[in-house]
Amino acid sequence: MNLTFRLRFVTHPGQSLALAGGHPLPAHPVPLQFLDRDHWQVAIPLTAQACAGSFHYSYLFRNGNAQATDWGRDRSLRPADFNCAELLVIDAWNTAAFFGNAFATAPFKNVLLAEHFTEVKTIPAKNPTHTFRVKAPLLEKNQTLCLLGEGPILGNWQTASPVLLNRIAGKDDLSVQLDLRGQPFPFAYKYGVFDVAKNSVLRFEAGADRILNDKIERDKHTLVNDGFASLPVEHWRGAGVAVPVFSLRSESSFGTGEFLDLKPLADWGKQVGLKLIQLLPVNDTSATNSWKDSYPYAAISAFALHPLYLNLAAVADGKNRRHLKPLEAVRQRLNRMKTLDYEAVMKVKLAFLKKIFPSQKAATFSTAEYKKFFKENQRWLVPYAAFCFLRDKFGTADFGRWPEHKAFDAGKIAALSRKNEEIAFHFFVQFHLHRQLKEATAHAHACGLVVKGDIAIGVCRHGADAWQSPELFNMEMQAGAPPDAFAAKGQNWGFPTYNWPHMAADDFAWWKRRFAQMGHYFDAFRIDHILGFFRIWSSPAHAVEGILGHFVPAIAIEPGEFAARGIAFDLDRFTRPFITDAVLAEVFGDAAEPVRREFLDAAGERHYHLKPKFATQRQVNDYFAARPQNGRNAKLKTGLFDLISNVLLFAMDGKYHFRFAIEQTSSFKNLPGDTQAKLRDLYVDYFFRRQDEFWMREAMQKLPALKRVTNMLICGEDLGLVPACVPEVMRDLGFLSLEIQRMPKNPGQEFSRPPDAPYLSVVTPSTHDMSTIRGWWTEDPALTRKFFNLGLGLPGEAPVEATPEIVEAVVRQHLASPAMWSIFQLQDLLGVDGEIRRKDVAAERINVPAIPNYYWRYRLHLTLEKLQRAEQFNSHLSRLLRENGR
């Protein structure tokens, strides 16, 4: 067979196209040849063996040094299906930015659009010459596409009895086979929407007519892949609820929300008309076995689930359920608590699981379901379970302090796990977590809701991933975020940063496994801090605060740049903490003299350096950790931190990186005016000019490859100091952006406008890192007044508190947005009802990012069963969703 690929694509000089993927040619990719203004093509002779097999392929676009691959994983071909000697395949380029691609993802295909499907089968032509394929994911029930156009076979545009396309279960494309002998070429045609119940054409697709220029030849077949029908897609909009699993409260849960509590949450979501449940990360975070492990973004395994979420009654077999009776009083007490008692819940749950494990392990481990689970997950499961055993044995998760096994050895760990019952216990727990989460998400799907997970940007430095694969991480660095309105000194999350060059060497295999693991449970996911794929805020190990970080990677300042800009470079002045008597007085007031004596050495007239044993924030932190914990010492520690960060530049490998917000430092303020101006211009160039294209290339080396391994819908949390290239990359890859009203991305706005949100986005009034609508309302009365008048368009004085009417107005704004999704914290939805919402507004907050060791313990104040019975609130919320087309 002779196979010809022809691609519709308009190019400009210097651009080229190639055939990539699994096509049956030894050389990859194969260059396409320019055919005419609208087409490129390549001919490939196939052997009989190659014709019999099927293969996947794609197209590659090159523009100078940049390249892009067309989107989709459905370009597949089995040439033998067409029974011809000449096969011409005419394709349309598919960019990830096409809105239609979003509807080919798992949540839509498997859940949200499933009820709209109606199978339509037509009788194929006896001797077809052409096959037409096209996508129209948002067809309603009883609808298919029809083909109308010029010529007798297409009915000369008549709509009485058009050519109908097949709509087959499991197929993304609609298709029809036609015998076009007798049809004049070229001819114009369009697709239309046809209602098989009404037997009528409802509408034509928009845009210019499609043109097919081909010819009929003996023993030739033409396959026309027309991409997407030009039909509106922006009309699909859904609403969802965001809530951490630990925050759920049911009548049967054990002091915390559990995976099985997602079932009554989904029942309620179906009741009111929601379409999505969004969760925080659910991975195991058990590093310290204390309340500090309540922080869900510091997983000790990017793959293991958290034992906190296990429902004990569902784990225990018939004989072991009797052991739950003595725990009932404890369960009820913990479940009545206003907030999560993390340590108490974990202690009781683990004790019970260890008690029943010996009598249930044999039956569990012998099942086909468990054997399948173990086989599919043992790559991470065995190291994780061994890590947990060694953590408990040696009393620390810091594997660098273990007497043995501090360096991971796969062979030794495999041997240890085969004979160690305490390691097998963690296999048992993870299997039951897997079962319960799968059961919960399956129930949500049956209710018509999809479940959205969350991929944390980092992992715990004292965790199983870092232990098993330390080469994937920069263990000497700490990830975080630069200063912003929520954390004036930046954030230091403590995670090791990723060794991206090493990850790229094996084609990001660890990330691909991580995405695949998410796909076992979730339909969509949020990439926490997607900016980290462009560059990450990285602080040295000796830093405590994020202010001492800089972006990695970044194009550093070369030494010669200072002279080129007329800046007299002084290494000591620019890179060492600037400490004078005036600075000490400003920072410490009356305590300046004791600070001088205890912590500083003289360095010239009225200038000082920190003593070597107090030169870093980590040294200062360790010093005060051994001192009385009182207000005076806390103030001294904070002041010394401020001295250490009072620098302009960080010197690294003979080059320099700016400290963030240098203009706020006394070091900068004490420079001559002309030096300030020149440094300021270089600072702006460093942060906002020179890096953008570089960071775009960094992201495009990672994100497209990772997106291809999953069919989940992806949302990127693109907040903070966002490089100018980020929106373009997000659009090009079809990622949903996150739009938050009080965090406008336009620097000229105080509030973003939900009506201006792009279609491929999620709009929300608040997140887990922020106060709720009601909480925000009281934080800054002047800002609230502006929002009341300008954001809501209401006259007069703003009320002191966010009344139910105010909260509802904000919710309505978001529901009416053109964004694909509007997602709300459950607290904000409850806020529209004066009777059901919580009285204590402050108690609704989940996290305060400015507090490094925050206790994540928020729980709903009412049970899910009571929520389902709240008829007035539920009917009101349901009406809000319907009125706004959600």
Verbal overview:
- This protein has 886 residues and is an alpha/beta fold.
- The protein has 28 helices and 35 strands.
- The strands form eight sheets. It has an eight-stranded parallel β-sheet with strand order 32-25-20-19-18-35-34-33. It has a seven-stranded mixed β-sheet with strand order 4-5-1-9-17-10-13, with no helix packed on it.
- Strand 4 (33-36) and strand 5 form a beta hairpin.
- Helix 15 (581-588) packs antiparallel against helix 18.
- The longest helix has 27 residues, at 368-394.
- It is globular, with a radius of gyration of 31 Å.
- The protein starts with a strand and ends with a helix.
- The model has no long low-confidence stretch (mean pLDDT 95).
